Amino acid sequence: xxxxxxxxxxxxxxxxxxxxxxxxxxxxxxxxxxxxxxxxxxxxxxxxxxxxxxxxxxxxxxxxxxxxxxxxxxxxxxxxxxxxxxxxxxxxxxxxxxxxxxxxxxxxxxxxxxxxxxxxxxxxxxxxxxxxxxxxxxxxxxxxxxxxxxxxxxxxxxxxxxxxxxx
Length: 167
Prior knowledge:
Radius of gyration: 32 Å
Strand content: 35-45%
Order of helices and strands: HEEEEEEE
Helix content: 40-55%
Largest sheet: 7 strands, antiparallel
Structural class: alpha+beta
Number of helices: 1
Mean pLDDT: 85
């Protein structure tokens, strides 16, 4: 009897010795999977927030860069184009005069580059970015203020100063 009782105890002990590492492995695997899923969710949320917040700032950075590229005496001004408030950039290429209009139309910031005297309307512009609203004011001769609200409601502002260099 004593030998049979020892065999049963050994069998139970061996069963626990087998089940404990397997249970521990499953707990570890489940924990690792939960950490990976949580990290992926946080990363996705960060990427979405970053892309949403950058739209308005990207539009204003684009405008600032275009203004600095055309920073020559009298070549940057505000006006209207086809009923839209527009940033107007004048350029000369090979003896011909061209104008770039940057304006808001159909919930988009658009740009249109045309030869002076050519017929075009606001719908002909190339869409730069989707926006909710865009406004611009000229503070003084060399200082411009721009406000942009993207389609997610995020707003950004920029003040651009020009040096008006003469080539």
